[in-house]
Amino acid sequence: EIVLTQSPGTLSLSPGERATLPCRASQSVSSSYLAWYQQKPGQAPRLLIYGASSRATGIPDRFSGSGSGTDFTLTISRVEPEDCAVYYCQLYVSSTWTFGQGTKVEIK
Amino acid sequence: QVQLVESGGGVVQPGGSLRLSCAASGFTFSTFGMHWVRQAPGKGLEWVAFIRYDGSHKYYADSVKGRLTISRDNSKNTLYLQMNRLRGEDTAVYYCAKAPNIGYYFDYWGQGILVTVSS
To answer: Is A88:A102 a contact under the CB 8 Å cutoff?
Structure first.
């Protein structure tokens, strides 16, 4: 079983700062199967990135994804107050879909 | 636009049963795979089950195998989750989510429905 680890659990940033959210897989995986979601309080998750680096429809270009092998990153180039949320990475392997435990982004 | 609306949640005793429904609109339901994903209070996301567009293949998380059953009725544009032998750890908000045409992620989500297992 492949485990996704997201650390730190919380990032506290000021508006305009760059946010770097890591997601590490316990073994090498295909980047085609790695996605990122944003979940704001009281809301359903929203797809941000699929295939490790492709932005979903309507997602602002300040959100970007990168990585390969075991290490993947979601970057928010300039954090805005509306980006306050929990961000999850997600992986597909062998008919199983797995989420990381999430990183909470707080805006100072 | 894609809409997914869950219903059927509520409070159920341990060992009891419940059936969730997810009404889909805004896309050709019969041509897309569908998922159930859950989130326990204050916790992260957990994938529960997937069903292929035609219902021919179903996959489950180990934590729910043998107790929860995913199904669909393409004539009614509706996804179901039959939940039997419920346990306290099944307490969660349950989301239905649409799979894309190509790819292994969740491109649209419902608003979620709360299931509470408690005596």
So the answer is: yes
